[in-house]
Design brief:
14 helices, elongated
Length: about 375
């Protein structure tokens, strides 16, 4: 065995230039393959994290007909009890409330149609990263605070808004204005541009409430979101749960959606089955892949493409090694003939070439590690 090691190690360095070129070329190709596959895998993983952790979350629960019709009346009943059941299993869940309406900026008199999302501020932080400052273009995330307008003839408090733009001086002077609760809202970036909205602007939102009345509330712009998606940028207005309930008069135990975060790296299919076992017939459970099949297929195709690229690069690297070994063998035909004449068998010659190939690959691996470091 020692003679094989010694002979094979000596033989691969008999032509140092060819061996060095082979080692460098293969090391470079292997490092390039590792970097390329790492970047592609990281990009796919980051895309999935952005999809799930920004707004969608891993799993969503809806009324069976909600996704098709998106009616304000198609809600999940008694959602606090469902959330408690999910939390007992180790899952994080947050309710969401949706609706549509019109918004108007009282300063610029610009208006637009909007989609409204109500969130539970405390629970939403457990399932998504929308509240992160990196997702805000300006301002701050929702705090849940409210501000009360009180006419001048009524005692003021620390949250008093002095003479907001949406009341005339005559109304304030006469004391004919009733106290109004002013909540907070986040606006999509393009929506804010359409409304020419700035931080602190007062917005009037008009909508049809769940009880059949007209919802009409005043809100203060506390933050403007970055360019997150076309839907969010152009139409989305986000408010806290209490502000949503004032505007839409929705029952406090109803929600349009429950966003659920799976436990650690739990397989998505397994997490869905566990959530279904808790929810039963009270709602329809869908994973983010079922909700966004196009993006899901894109990520799956990217993974397949990564495997194909790795396979092709391995084949190319193998052919380079094979070509180098073939050249080593062909130029030593006479040498092998003499070795066989001296009593070395064909199998022994094969083992010698095998060891030479092993040591050549060992040098390639060492060089690749040095290049990566």
């Amino acid at each position: 065995m020692f003679s094989y090691n010694k002979l094979s190690w000596r033989n691969i360095w008999r032509n140092k230039r060819r061996t060095a070129i082979t080692v460098f070329a293969l090391s470079f190709s292997l490092v390039l393959m590792i970097i390329t596959t790492g970047l592609m895998a990281g990009y796919a993983s980051q895309m999935e994290r952005d999809i799930t952790k920004l707004t969608i979350s891993d799993i969503q629960i809806h009324h069976p007909d909600y996704l098709g019709e998106q009616s304000i009346y198609q809600t999940i009943k008694d959602y606090p009890e469902l959330i408690r059941s999910l939390e007992e299993k180790g899952y994080k869940a947050s309710p969401r409330f949706y609706g549509y309406g019109l918004i108007s900026n009282t300063r610029t008199e610009k208006s637009a149609g909007i989609k409204i999302e109500g969130v539970d501020i405390a629970k939403e932080r457990n399932v998504t990263e929308l509240h992160f400052s990196k997702n805000l273009f300006k301002g701050n995330y929702l705090t849940g605070e409210t501000f009360i307008f009180i006419p001048k003839d009524v005692e003021k408090n620390e949250n008093y808004i002095e003479e907001p733009d949406f009341f005339s001086e005559e109304e304030i002077t006469e004391g004919s204005v009733e106290p109004i609760t002013v909540g907070e809202v986040l606006l999509g970036k393009k929506l804010a541009k359409t409304l020419k909205a700035k931080l602190g602007d007062e917005m009037v939102i008009l909508t049809m409430a769940a009880d059949g009345s007209m919802g009409n509330e005043v809100f203060k712009v506390t933050g403007i979101l970055k360019n997150l998606s076309e839907d969010i940028d152009r139409t989305m207005v986000i408010m806290d749960r209490s502000s949503y309930n004032r505007l839409f008069s929705l029952s406090t135990d109803e929600a349009h959606e429950l966003a659920v975060k799976r436990i650690g790296n739990e397989p998505l299919a397994e997490a869905k089955n566990n959530v279904v076992s808790v929810i039963g017939e009270k709602g329809e459970v869908k994973t983010w892949r079922e909700l966004l099949p196009t993006l899901s297929n894109l990520l799956s195709n990217m993974n397949v493409l990564t495997y194909v690229m790795v396979f092709l690069m391995y084949i190319a690297s193998g052919m380079v090694i094979m070509n180098s070994i073939l050249m080593m063998v062909l130029e030593r035909i006479k040498e092998f003939g003499i070795m066989k004449a001296l009593g070395m068998g064909g199998g022994q010659v094969f083992i010698l070439v095998f060891f030479e190939t092993f040591y050549l690959n060992l040098q390639i691996g060492r060089a690749s590690c040095r290049e990566r470091v």
